Amino acid sequence: MSWARRFAGWWQRSPRVPVVLKSRQLVVQAIRDLVVAVLRSPFRFVGAVVRGLVVVVRWWRLWVRVADYRAAAEQSEKLADKFTDIRALALFRWRVTGALVAVAGVVVAVLDLVYGHRVLWTGGGVVAVVLAVLGRRKDGSPGRTPVLAGPRTLTWTMDPQVLVDAFRDAKLIGKDESLRLVERARRQGDGWAVTVDLPATRKAADVVKNREALASALAVDEVQLIVERVRGNGGHAGRVALWVADEDPYGSPPLRTPLLGVERWDAWRPVPFGRDARQRRVDLPLVWTSLLVGAIPRQGKTFAARLAAAGLILDPYTRLYVADFKAGKDWYAAGRVAHRFMAGDEPTHVLALVDWLVELVAEVQGRYRRMQDLDDEMCPESKITPAMSRDPSLDMPVTAIFIDEVQIPLEDRTPLEVQEKKLTAGEYVGELLTWLARKGPAAGIVLVLATQRPDSKTIPSNLRAVLGSRFALRVMDWRDSNIVLGEQMNTRGYDSSRLLATHKGVGILRPDGETTAGADVLATTVRTYYMPNEDWRTICARGRALREAEGTLSGHAAGQDNRPILDHAAVARAIGGGTVVEQTGESELPEPLASVVDYLGDDLQPGRRDFVPTAELVAALDVEPTAFGLRMGEFGCRPTRDRITTDDGVRQVRGYLVADIRAALTAVRDGTIVDGEVIEDDD
User: Binning pLDDT at 50, 70 and 90, where does residue 534 land?
Assistant: First the structure.
């Protein structure tokens, strides 16, 4: 068997073996292509003969009309002088044509009389082959340019040259560059899939970013086109996988959650979250991470958060905190399983949330202290394990806190005093959530936040920075999309503001961990499962029955609404002495400086980027260039010229120094500049 393994390894690695023979799938596809080619060959031959005949007739027509002589005379402006000669030459060529036809007819007739009709068949076959060669579909064939009639939506599946032309039209490759087919177009689900290699130095990330332009070149809606970079052992920076759906993949009714068909779930397993455009199941890991869900109203934000909660509800060893600041009926059934539950949007509810968070911070600190006393077999590192979470003696269950409409507690202005520091309840909630998102996951704390106002005024940047998983349904513009998904995600091709309003429950998922699409996938568009209230109540009832059977029902669900034991002083010391989290100032920045700062993101840091072209900012922010330049000048940002490297080489462009933008940002925050006006110091 060793020689068989060696031969198989050589077969897979050898460059002499065609790629099509290295896997069973490709061999089957090659056989199918061969059968199709054989069946189509008679029709293709007839078509090539007809096109060849057209080419010959065009050649003869140009020759008999003396087109070359006429064109030369027209170019030299002597057509009138040469008209008699041109006409005489044209009549002569007509006579030559007639004479050749007559001679050919006589020769064929004589040969037919001598040798029989086989001369006609042999001569006709030779002529047909010659015409077919002249009329073949190939670039550079005489007398024609390859053109495929009809809509170009699926022509690339039959002629790869159409796909190459689409990449050229989208300016993803140069006019003299081409693609290399790794796998031919094949049916995959309800669409067509193909994998290609880009020319050297071309990047797959650019294709993902310019997916809309490629969709236009292929004549399909961008929601039907899925573009992914192929990574891992079988991929590289220039390998792209394309999938084109036959129709809108999100136009059909949504599927019900598969959790309805299970009796219980393991919280350590990723939760069934939805399906991508190819109808592949997408599971969402929750343990050791946190989740932010953002969307404008009525796009499925609460449904998405409840899907994450459903998997944890069906694990009787999890502990749930649920705070519904919408104060509706969406989360009401969760009160039957939640350790702590409340629904309301009054300041008293915000203060109750503060107590919960303080309790959880103290719980995390206690868990880390108890981990120090455990041996390496039970606790290999400072992280909770499945065995630890199910051991009643350790009291470290996976604990999830769900906060719907989190913008309400974050914006609450109820005054508080913590360790002699005065701050608002919203600021304190932001501090506590940030601390839990940073240190809680390793101790088994899962943080799930949902908001209908995903903007820089609502969720502090230091909190967003430590939230691992992101799910953005439809939002108003690319800035809000970046608030949820992360800085500059729109420049990488992920912008949830482009999602259609009719696609309820469709969003862009940026997971913190491996999903069905692979660990190397940055983000993917997902349609969440459908879980109406009756299904939600069924799952919550099942979760309560499981907890009753295991003896893990506690807190609110068990009728024990005892107040949490609080140690504000210890918690204040843990999160930094109760000091207010430094405000980013994004909400107070005037336009267009606020948009520029939001667009640059981490590039504003010293040592990252020194210069940004004006054209890049104007295109990204979608602003009028003249007004933009005047406003930036009011903040002390004067345009200058610098050299940048592009695909066409090094060229000089106008733009702004990032140092000037940082200086303007500092001046606005210090109050030196207020909305473009310089404030003079009286001293």
Answer: very high
**Crossing angle (nearest 10°) for helices 347-371 and 425-439:** 30
SS3 566: coil
Judged by phi (left if over 0) then psi (alpha if -120 to 50, else beta), residue 340 lies in beta
3-state secondary structure of 188: coil
Read off the pLDDT of residues 231-285 as tens digits, 9 standing for 90 and up.
Answer: 877 788 889 999 888 888 888 888 999 999 999 999 999 999 999 888 889 999 9
What whole-number distance in Å separates Cα of residue 333 and Cα of residue 544? 10
Q: Report the DSSP beta bridge partners of residue 274.
A: 282, 528
DSSP assignment of 453-510 equals: --STTTS-HHHHTT--EEEE---SSHHHHHHHH-TTTGGGT--GGGS-TT-TTEEEEE
Return the number of other C-beta atoms located less than 10 Å from residue 413's C-beta.
Answer: 10
In terms of Cα–Cα distance, which of 327, 22, 342 is closest to 183? 22
Residue-wise pLDDT for 114-164, tens only, equals 888 787 888 888 888 888 888 776 544 444 443 333 334 455 554 677 888
Contact between residue 156 and residue 163 where contact means Cβ atoms under 8 Å apart: yes
Asked if pLDDT for residue 672 goes beyond 70, the answer is no
Mean pLDDT value of segment 72-82: 65
User: What SS3 state is found at 515?
Assistant: strand
**Phi, psi for 452 (deg, rounded to 5):** -100, 5
Q: How many CB atoms lie within 10 A of CB 349?
A: 19
The answer to whether the predicted template modeling score (pTM) of the entire model surpasses 0.90 is: no
Over residues 447-463, the mean pLDDT reads: 83
Nearest to 128 by CA among 48, 40, 37, 43: 48
Q: How far is it, in rounded angstroms, from Cα 133 to Cα 517?
A: 46
For 573, the token pair is: 């010391």
Query: Which string of b and e fits 567-585 if b means at least 16 CB within 10 Å?
Result: ebeebbebbeebeebeeeb
Strand, coil or helix: what is 293?
strand
pLDDT digits (tens, 9 = 90+) for 45-58: 888 888 888 888 88
Q: Quick check: helix, strand or coil at residue 229?
A: strand
| Nearest Cα to Cα of residue 197 among 234, 225, 170, 162 | 234
Peptide bond into 592 cis (omega under 30): yes
Q: Which residue in 529, 545, 547 sits closest to 537, CA to CA? A: 545
